[in-house]
Design brief:
mainly beta; 13-stranded antiparallel sheet; 1 helix; disordered C terminus
Length: 528
């Protein structure tokens, strides 16, 4: 996992990951200042080492002298061995209210140079001559990761075209969306897509995926929106991929802080939604995709700060993208987490969390457990406190009662995490139950609903579940599909098991394994 160092007052923002020559390259924003684009590398997508920052905001008077926003790195299709980074820039000229897209290039992914831009520094037309002279001297420096040369012939920075998109500040929104670029190429054609807004329709329903086509090397022609659902204010951090014969458009929506997708069988045909087009549950944001040796991965940042997504962010482990036989996209657990598995924990016997501690339920051969609770609530736990672990089982539920998973639960207070599983409707909800400070009255009971997710249950009443508690990272999969994925630091250790309310449960193929802790020194993390 990747996060900020505690107390640094910085947070990881939007991410972009590229896999090349056995190495994952992470480029990401650093909030709240957006002063530079950071760069880190990893061989396993879990442990990261920071290297030199890739880009910095421009010098005063530049088109990107206020902030840098989301970027995307891809091979240069016109110069083999070279890489291009399209990135979003904001200028002090408009107080950051107009978004534009620029370009930087690199021959090794480590040393980046901003390309020339068509831009005029309009500051201080009546400055004293000595100040004018000082400004001219300061501009005499080579192109670098923070400075762009000026060229009247340059197409950059790219701006929203008023023929198709909102492009000026003279609208009721007073904010021009034209950001989060992503380059897609197929054959000899290439398109740069971005978060944009159509220039007509209800004001908060204009969010679309804009597009400009690269009609010649470094020349971009505006095109109509690639997709306009007619529902959202913005479609942030769009991605376009092809899997088999299907095209998928992946984007993040501020309305519910989820990552969703649309599909089509041909570029130019309508983009359609499946009945369930949520890739990652609420709180996961700014999803980006990359390909490695095993297929497509989706990355994102998750915030522990609730609605404020500018602090306490982490980048959790990626998810593997899977295509179902019917063409739906699903996410599954990243196989790289298997490298963190430790010894198995005995699961032949469980004991009730409340009641007689000596009363155990044991299986005959170690592969199947039968549990029952006639009334009220009862959890059955394995008698080994754990911090990081993976729990697997196939659940078969009898009756119309409730069931779920508990983990990191305290045997005295019952404080810990509770995952309710509705195996009929296909609904999972994760809650944190905690006891408050003594003497705090009604505040003694502390309850937080952390995340919920749905799935379509082909076999109502049964499911194969997998729970991963890996440091602060928590993940629940049902029948191989990731349903819940989040981070929470409330509980760090405790008992693992299952619970029932007025129901019976059969557990098959139960497996509980320790996981090594995802600990890194601060030298690995974002300390910049």
């Amino acid at each position: 996992m990747f996060t900020e160092t505690e107390g640094s007052r910085k947070a990881i923002g939007d991410v972009d990951v590229l896999y090349h020559d056995g190495l994952y390259h992470l480029f990401h924003l650093v909030l709240p200042n957006h002063d530079f684009i950071a760069h880190a590398v990893s061989t396993d997508a879990i442990n990261w080492r920071r290297v030199n920052n890739a880009l910095f905001i421009g010098d005063p008077g530049s088109w990107d002298d206020l902030m840098l926003w989301t970027m995307a790195v891809s091979p240069d299709p016109h110069q083999p061995g070279r890489w291009r980074m399209f990135y979003t820039g904001l200028s002090r000229r408009e107080q950051g209210n107009v978004q534009r897209i620029g370009l930087a290039v690199s021959d090794d992914l480590y040393h980046w140079q901003k390309t020339p831009v068509h831009w005029h520094d309009e500051r201080g037309p009546y400055d004293p001559p000595k100040v004018m002279h000082a400004r001219a001297i300061a501009r005499q420096q080579p192109t670098s990761c923070r400075h762009s040369e000026l060229s009247e012939e340059s197409p950059f920075p790219l701006e929203a075209d008023p023929e198709y998109y909102e492009a000026t500040l003279d609208t009721d929104r007073n904010w021009v969306s034209f950001r989060d670029p992503y380059y897609y190429r197929e054959g000899d054609r290439g398109w740069l897509i971005m978060a944009a807004r159509t220039n007509e329709g209800p004001l908060v329903r204009r969010g679309c995926v804009g597009v400009v086509e690269e009609t010649a090397p470094g020349e971009f022609t505006p095109r109509p929106p690639l997709h306009h659902p007619g529902l959202y204010d913005d479609i942030e951090v769009p991605n376009l991929i092809r899997v088999g014969e299907e095209y998928y458009l992946i984007g993040s929506l501020r309305e519910d802080a989820k990552i969703r997708y649309w599909h089509t069988d041909k570029i130019g045909n309508p983009w359609r939604s499946y009945h369930d087009n949520v890739l990652l549950a609420q709180g996961n944001y700014a999803g980006r995709v990359c390909q490695d040796d095993h297929g497509w991965l989706v990355w994102n940042f998750f915030t522990l700060g609730g609605a404020d997504r500018t602090s306490h962010n982490i980048m959790p482990p990626p998810k593997r993208l899977q295509q179902t036989p019917g063409g739906l996209l699903r996410t599954s657990t990243f196989e790289g987490l298997n490298q963190w598995l430790g010894d198995p924990v005995a699961t032949r016997c469980v004991r009730p969390l409340r009641g007689a501690a000596s009363h155990e339920h044991c299986s005959v051969d170690g592969s199947e457990l039968e549990l029952a609770c006639e009334a009220g609530f009862q959890a059955f736990v394995f008698d080994t406190p754990l911090s990081s672990a993976r729990l697997r089982a196939k659940i078969e539920l009898d009756g119309l009662g409730k069931c779920g998973v508990v983990f990191r639960v305290d045997s005295d207070t019952y404080d810990g995490y509770y995952v309710s599983l509705d195996l009929l409707k296909g609904l999972a909800q994760l809650r944190a139950w905690q006891t408050g400070e003594p003497g705090s009255g009604e505040h003694m009971m502390q309850f937080r609903a952390l995340q919920g997710g749905n799935w379509h249950n082909d076999t109502p009443g049964s499911a194969e579940v997998q729970l991963i508690a890996f440091g602060h990272y928590l993940e629940l999969s049902v029948d191989g599909r990731v349903i819940l994925t989040l981070a929470d630091p409330t509980f760090t250790s405790g008992l693992f098991g299952f619970y029932l309310e007025s129901a019976k449960m059969r557990l098959h193929d139960v497996e509980l394994r320790r996981m090594h802790e995802p600990t890194q020194s601060t030298n690995h993390l974002v300390t910049g």
